Amino acid sequence: MVRPNIGIVNALIRITCGLTILTWSTSKYCKKPWRDSYLILIILGAMKVGEGILRFCPITYLFENANATFLEDEENLEEDDEKIVYNPS
User: Fold this and answer.
1) Which sign does the torsion angle of CA 34, 40, 43, 46 carry?
2) How far is the first Cα of the chain from the last one, in angstroms, to the nearest whole number?
3) CA 18, CA 44: separation in Å to the nearest integer?
4) What is the pLDDT of residue 2?
């Protein structure tokens, strides 16, 4: 289940920018179909529209989970430090 991780305003901006990129690159691709760069822009624009409709960004999801994992690791290290007994001999 995909849970929304971006806001409404952010989603509307993504839809608007994605449709703009999609229409511009599609019109250019119709004139010069041998250019692969326009095809890549079409895919990126469609991805932005999809992110806006679903209100889910995979990059944001990765950063949120990486940050949460990092914070959990720091807490575990602090707990492990308390368990170590100092022995000077």
Assistant:
1) negative
2) 55
3) 8
4) 78
> Tokens in use for 45?
């624009």
- Say how many C-beta atoms besides its own lie within 10 A of residue 18's C-beta: 20
What is the rounded CA–CA span in Å between residue 78 and residue 76?
5
Q: What long-range pairs does 17-20 form, CB within 8 A, spacing at least 24? A: 17/48, 18/45, 18/46, 18/47, 18/48, 18/49, 18/50, 18/51, 18/52, 19/45, 19/49, 20/45
- What is the mean pLDDT of each successive set of 10 residues along the chain, which is 89 residues long? 88 96 96 93 96 92 77 59 57
Q: How many CB atoms lie within 10 A of CB 57?
A: 20
Rounded distance between C-alpha atoms, residue 25 and residue 38, angstroms: 5
Q: For the whole model, what pTM was predicted?
A: 0.71
pLDDT of residue 62: 87
Task: Answer yes or no: are the C-beta atoms of 18 and 47 closer than 8 Å.
Answer: yes
